[in-house]
Amino acid sequence: MGFRHQFVIGDIQGCYADLQALLKQIGFDEQQDKLWFVGDIVARGEDSLSALRLVKRLCQAGAAEMVLGNHDINLIAVWRGVIKIKKKDRTQAIFDAPDCDELLNWLRRQPLLVYPNDKTVMVHAGIPPNWSITQAAMHASELQTQLQSSLWQLDRLLPHLYSDTAVPWSNMLTGYARMRAICNYFTRMRLCQMDGTLEFSFKSSLDDKMPEGFRPWFEWQVPRERKILFGHWAALKAKVDLANARATDAGCVWGGSMMAYRLEDEQVICQTCKAK
């Protein structure tokens, strides 16, 4: 099916009113257009429940697709009793909702990597310089299989996805260490070394001092056959637009903007968000 317009939408973070305003601004028609949500549907905004319900409905109607972000996986982990809700997250309404299990069972079956068109690939945080896009798709499939498996298997997996120990990638990694590394690349990465070693503490802008030997994953010069569309890094304010990468998180939940990136002509439309 051909679409009139396709838009990549940056991190929503539960900012439902701002999402509604952005969709109105771009003239979104779910009968003619398609949305690509870059992850972090929920967390710190005023209405994560409504945001998640809307994204689920649009995806099931064929009017949207999404990838999982770190806050989405955290939500799944809270649901399964692996971690507690973070103090700043405003997601309790999801767990109190009558459709909680339906929403979270649907969410855990969403992908980590998708192809919005023949020129782009979309992930939440990025693709490290030591992976080709083909390799990234294979690794995404590995973790997706685990997340989408039985609840028993999911409950075994989730506790092992949380660690700030930076382990260099190796094809020899196995088991939960391998799943954790894959999850970190797709949902948490900002800075890394050329071999893919991650640094988890830096969340600032490109003007700030970075740990020695690390740089933003997209600044390593690696030939890419597709442009990587990503969110996650709010401090970039969605201003990074390179030949190989395009940032889409304009920091809505921090009082910035929510961004729509129109695929056919690369036009950017921003909805100025209310201070949170």
Automatic annotation (TrEMBL):
Keywords: Hydrolase. It comes from the Bacteria. Gene3D superfamilies: 3.60.21.10. Its EC number is 3.6.1.41. The keyword Cell membrane does not apply. It holds the Pfam family Metallophos. Residues 8-149 form the Calcineurin-like phosphoesterase domain. The keyword Hydrolase applies. It is an enzyme of class 3 (hydrolase). Hydrolyzes diadenosine 5',5'''-P1,P4-tetraphosphate to yield ADP. Belongs to the Ap4A hydrolase family. This is bis(5'-nucleosyl)-tetraphosphatase (symmetrical). It comes from Enhydrobacter aerosaccus. The lineage of its organism: Bacteria, Pseudomonadati, Pseudomonadota, Alphaproteobacteria, Hyphomicrobiales.
